[in-house]
Amino acid sequence: MDVPAAAARRRTLAPRVPVPGGRVLSGRVAVRSALVCAVLLLLTTAVTGVALGLGEIVYSPAEVLAALAGRASGAAELFVVGWRLPRAVAAVVFGAMLGVSGALFQTVTRNPLGSPDIIGFTAGSSLAGTAAILLVGSGFAVVAGGALAGGLAVAVVMVLLSRGGGVAGFRLVIAGIALNAMLLSTESWLVLIADLDAARAAALWGAGTLNGADFGYVGWAMALGGAAIVLTVLLLGQRLDLLDMGEDTSSALGGRPARTRLYAVGAGVLLVALVTAAAGPIAFVALAAPHIGRRLTAGTGNALIPAACSGAFLLAAADLAAQHLVPGRTYPVGVVTVVGGGLYLMTLIVRENRRATL
Amino acid sequence: MSTERDTGRGTEHDTGDGAVLRAVGLTMAYEQRVVGRDLSVDVPSGEFTAVIGPNACGKSTLLRMLSRLSRPAAGTVYLDGRDIHRMRARDLARRLGLLPQSAITPPGISVFDLVRRGRYPHQSVLSRWSAEDERSVDRALAATGMTELADRDVDELSGGQRQRAWVAMALAQESPVLLLDEPTTFLDVSHQLALMELFAELHRSGGRTVVAVLHDINHAARYAGHLVVMSAGRVVAEGPPAQVLTAPLLSEVFGVDAVIIEDPLHGGPLVVTAYRGRDSATASPERTATA
């Protein structure tokens, strides 16, 4: 009954040459991933440095460093540390939050278009935030509460809509795009019927802006968001990798796919809602950052960290452009991301359509 | 090895040595539609068990319930005497592994990376990767003959190699019980045999309990020590292949005429089948019942 030849042949294979230090991070992918993230962070730092230097009064890098170290004149310190630094840091942290949120949603929906700004989560947060501004007021807690509630409400609607079809896939994306359009038009209607001052505040917020960001207002969002990113990477990173191998495999490995998806959506909604509450809806960073991170690292898996790094770079660069691309005018960063991201989305759709992977 | 299905029903089961998996009084249902009722199966410890039966007989569904992918409408599955639905996910995954049919290869993943993920149940947030993990992955790669392909992308491999990479992933899990859902489907015959040899070797030298849903009756007869034959959501026969495989059973279950001879190469039963006509194929309750 035994045919041991094949088994014996397998056994005579040469043992693998041991790699120094083991392959804890599995070789070249991890090295490349770490390199790409380091480069992205370096670029982000450079962009941030430029953002700190540019403005009504231009400071040299040396002056910026002096101001950061607390060794500059009162005026330089006020401009660089008091006014420009909060905005620049907010761009970096919010960018990272949006990147991670996008990576979470795209992993859960298994679709490159399944990002919160396409399938209605950003719009839901934005609508509820606008409603909060118009009906209650524009304090951070009010807007944040509204934005979070809006995001969660969208999550509930999406789960109901995608019932039977599974949370994954095409159906959810189509339903989300439709929902997104409805939410946006409702928001426009709200702004139109509101009184002028409130409408102006809401419209400004609704464009997605970091103008006038100060630590008192955006600090909470940044602290909570940073903590949420760290916890997500630590607790969900591996389980999201398992989810990529299919529902059954994930379950067989003890990865509890249903719970993982729930946590991932929860964390994703929280991150988007926090950013939206602090800065208004900023579109397309969550869509583009995970793709860019994945392409650059050529890695597999959830790619949360590369997404965070590219998100930080994208939003920092977009905000720099919003402030200084057109001399003498400062635009909301949301305008820049919509223009840039729209182009990105078009190329993405064309490419995915050609490969029929959408 | 026991072929009686009624011993110790519903009570704690004395396992002796090694793990044993048993299903007691399962009702299998999709939504409201019952596809199998009062199903009981004993998986003998340290044995290679093959589950065979016609399409839509519920064999894949049984495997899903044995591995907790689906919850039975009634009945209990015990692993080492414990209800698997009361076990923590990782505890279960350390004791029971599964290679499902629906496995998705993440794009661009290397063989090593794929196999590494099989170690998840042995890791925690604090201890990410240990020397033991490294050794397990090395062993799994060696056992499947994938050591030299460890750095290759799974996408670039041939069908047989890809399936071996997935088997290595399941082996790295190092669970005493391993369930396989049609592991050789879509492979050519030499790759099928290579995998069957590997599974047989796992229980022979490694002492693992292996349960495989198989299509090929003769592969099941040659490699498995214990057969479970299913038809229309019921277990119709259980035991060693030489006892279980009879012409009347094959006629009833598969709707084929069959002659059973001694396998000239390996000993044991060899089934030679003859087509009997379209109408005599057993009616299945629902086509969709097997995933």
TrEMBL record, chain B:
What is an example of a GO molecular function annotated in this UniProt entry? Answer: ATP binding
Q: Which UniProt keywords apply?
A: ATP-binding, Cell membrane, Ion transport, Iron, Iron transport, Membrane, Nucleotide-binding, Transport
Q: What InterPro entries does the record point to?
A: AAA+_ATPase, ABC_transporter-like_ATP-bd, ABC_transporter-like_CS, P-loop_NTPase, Siderophore_ABC-ATPase
CDD domains xref list: ABC_Iron-Siderophores_B12_Hemin (cd03214)
Task: Tell me which PROSITE patterns the record gives.
Answer: ABC_TRANSPORTER_1 (PS00211), ABC_TRANSPORTER_2 (PS50893)
Record has Transport as a keyword: yes
Which compartments does it reside in? Cell membrane
Domain ABC transporter, residue spans: 21-257
Q: How does it sit in the membrane?
A: Peripheral membrane protein
Write down the PANTHER family for this protein, in alphabetical order: IRON(3+)-HYDROXAMATE IMPORT ATP-BINDING PROTEIN FHUC
Name recorded for this polypeptide:
ABC transporter ATP-binding protein
Biological source species: Pseudonocardia nematodicida
